[in-house]
Amino acid sequence: MKYILPTYRKSIVGLSLFLSIAVTFNSCDESISKKETVQIEEHPNWLILEPETAIKNNTALEWNFELKHSGLYVVQLVRDGIHEDLDTLVSIKIDNDSIREPLLKSYVINKTSNPQTVSEFKKTIDFKEAKSHTISIASNTPFAKIRVVPHFKNQINSGKHETEWLAMHNSPEKQAALQWFNEAKYGMFIHWGLYSQAGGIWKDVRIEESPHPGPHVAEWLMSTFQLSREEYKELAKTFNPDASFAQNIAKLAKDAGMKYVVITSKHHDGFALFDSASSEYNIVDATPYKKDAIKELYDACLEQGLDFGVYYSHGNDWMDGTDGNSLRIKKRNDSLGIYAHMTGKNYWDPSPNTYESYFENKAYPQISELLALMPKLKLIWFDGDGNINEEQSFRFYKLVYDINPSVLVNRRVGFGFGDYEDAGDNKIPSVKEVLEKQWETCGTTNGSWGFKSYDDNWKSTTEILYYFIDIASKGGNYLLNIGPDGNGDVPIASANILREVGDWLQINGDAIYGSTGWKILNEGQKEALSNETTHRGKKQFDRSFSNQEFWFTAKENKVFAISLVPIESTITIKSLDENAGKIKNVRILGSNEKPMWKQTKNGLEISVKDLISSKNGYVVEATLE
């Protein structure tokens, strides 16, 4: 497999900016034409645009610039002096995207010498490509400059480790692992830990009602309630799951048709579900269970013929990761007038060590421990990379490779060093989004990752299948989550959903495992899109389906057309018309009946007799010559 450098990797140092001005200034009798390179004063990846370098057309100014790094950016307007919020709307146009917002006082910089007010627009700009762009502004309000700054999620790689990273990523071991990943397609995600005992409730208060800000998913209990480290540690004294939890979960994953399992070996709370020599805050040393839960589940999965991976929160550790340098970063960013992302860092009761010592004494050693513990480990799913720097991200990647080059590393290791991408929590990318690497979507069966005792907003089997086949049609993997309770038991509703999906895969798995997207993704419907964990909130799934809707996957010379409604006596698949290539055989997966069919300019027309399919639909397999 040849690696294509994706658009989201940012391997070129700095942001090269060339301004070409060719606009007439109508308020006077002269024509101005300038060409000059802008010097970036605050940061090499910032775009600084000053009025003096543009051409004024009444109140409009325009610049053209070459962007070397794609990704998400924020736009800021800087005014000399200290100003309060201004209701006057300012219009900015970047290519075909527009911003029209009032000027709010987001930050004040240079307070002691030359104070300036920074107004940051709420709307972000997603530059899909690193190429020439145009920005213009229409405003009667005087300003010192416009700044276009990378969004905090837009980690820009310096390129220092590019050659070494590519050599590892393109190694035979990594490419073989990526081939396995593509063939697997469907995995189980497990969020389980001390927080599972609480079920989203602390001292009779539901997590949504906490007086502190934070995500309302159950595994964020310590952060959202801002529990002290000592108080949270008390949960370890009662964590004593059922001894059969590993066998039960592995059997469920097998029944569900999943090919791999990924569990939280250490979530943001810092508690390890494995026996760790680097920290006594682990399931063997700190709980009455006294056994290595990760090793138990690893062994149980291998016995079931399942592959195994671990989630590891490397960037966030509320027990030993101090404040993740968040207060220092916030002080620096406030002085620069840019956003500091504080979510996920323990600033209410930080450990007394340094962030760097946390990496050296806990995070790096624990990754080594996990790799030594499980020689057949398939992947490490890193998380919490917000304040990690490029050197630390690369070290995690290289550490994994040096110990076991066959272990995959996900995107969230940071700075583009992952072997594969994830689209985001419960996020399904649109057709327009460019994902050059192999990718997956991780999703929930309700509105929380960890066990939440009162969250009964379960997604139906049909809804899960809808997301699953849309992801598969786009070439992705689906990592579907369960949240066992403190005893290790999976909620019955969640388990039933997984088993029903497994029943569907028992019949139709050929259309999923090892498949890729076809040249046409679907016909007859809008694509499935979701944006984040609670994307539909309390709202129930209300999507209906018809016999004219199909999703497509492909494998070798076969095309699979997937329907989510029961089969009818006559089927027409328009995308498999004569232009799709000559079809030599057609069958309905799971059926021994040989259907009557013909391929015309109008599509593939199929007739079946007395065939009853699942309520969750059927799959047509068309073999091309």
Describe it.
The relative contact order is 0.10. The two termini are 25 Å apart. Mean pLDDT is 90; it is low at 1-41. The protein has an eight-stranded parallel sheet, sandwiched between helices. The longest helix is centred in the middle third of the chain and has 19 residues, at 355-373. By secondary structure, it is of the alpha+beta class. The chain contains twelve helices and 31 strands.
Chart the SSEs and their pairings.
Blueprint: E1 18-21, E2 34-37, E3 47-49, E4 55-57, E5 60-66, E6 71-80, E7 86-94, E8 97-103, E9 107-109, E10 116-120, E11 125-127, E12 132-138, E13 145-150, H1 162-169, H2 172-184, E14 186-190, E15 201-202, E16 205-206, H3 221-224, H4 229-233, H5 245-255, E17 260-266, H6 283-286, H7 293-303, E18 307-313, H8 326-336, H9 355-373, E19 379-383, H10 390-403, E20 408-409, E21 421-425, E22 439-443, H11 461-473, E23 477-482, H12 492-508, E24 516-523, E25 550-555, E26 558-563, E27 570-573, E28 583-588, E29 596-600, E30 603-607, E31 618-624
Parallel strand pairs: 14-17, 14-23, 17-18, 18-19, 19-20, 21-22, 22-23
Antiparallel strand pairs: 1-2, 3-13, 4-5, 5-12, 6-10, 6-11, 6-13, 7-8, 7-12, 9-10, 15-16, 24-25, 25-26, 26-31, 27-30, 28-31, 29-30
Helix pairs in contact: 5-7, 5-12, 9-10
